[in-house]
UniProtKB/TrEMBL annotation:
The lineage of its organism: Eukaryota, Viridiplantae, Streptophyta, Embryophyta, Tracheophyta. SUPFAM superfamilies: Cytochrome P450. GO terms for molecular function: heme binding; iron ion binding; monooxygenase activity; oxidoreductase activity, acting on paired donors, with incorporation or reduction of molecular oxygen. It holds the Pfam family p450. It comes from Hibiscus trionum. This is Cytochrome P450. InterPro entries: Cyt_P450, Cyt_P450_E_grp-I, Cyt_P450_sf. The keyword Membrane applies. Keywords: Membrane, Transmembrane, Transmembrane helix. The chain crosses the membrane at residues 32-50. It comes from the Eukaryota. Coiled coil: none annotated.
Length: 148
């Protein structure tokens, strides 16, 4: 019996064409993953720089007020006697103060001259306010308090 041997010749070009997704050392290259994570990294860096630049632009300052907790704001610290609580806050922070109530920001005006300016002189500016969801559900949005 005769053994027939057929020599198989592969040059290096045909081998690399067949296994083109493998690197030179036989391990797979992760070109797509490398490209993906590079693009994600560049996007994150640009987004961070953009947000830093945007936050440094002049924003209108809000009035002073007590710092609240992250989700509930100053709601746990409200006292049952609200008018005396607001008077105490006005002695600390001044006649106009900011109060964080949950995810809503409330502005408390306590001096009569400032109240007159807000309600009479600058009424169009300060009339833009959100109607609470409960008020919209109860009255269908036709309440005199929330009308423009």
């Amino acid at each position: 019996m005769t053994l027939i041997s057929i020599p198989l010749h592969f040059n290096s070009n045909s081998y690399t064409k067949i296994w083109s997704w493998f690197g030179n050392d036989g391990r797979p290259t992760h070109d797509f993953a490398r490209l993906f994570f590079t693009l994600v990294g560049v996007f994150v860096i640009f987004r961070y720089v953009f947000m830093c630049i945007k936050s440094k632009k002049a924003k209108p300052r809000s009035p002073p007020g007590p710092r609240g907790l992250p989700l509930v704001g100053s709601l746990p610290f409200l006292e049952p006697d609200l008018h005396s609580y607001f008077a105490k806050l006005a002695r600390t922070y001044g006649p106009v103060l900011k109060l964080q109530l949950g995810n809503k920001t409330g502005i408390v005006v306590s001096s009569p001259s400032t109240v007159r300016e807000v309600l009479k002189d600058q009424d169009i500016t300060f009339a833009n306010r959100d109607a609470p969801v409960v008020g919209l559900l109860a009255t269908g949005g036709h309440d005199i308090v929330w009308s423009p």
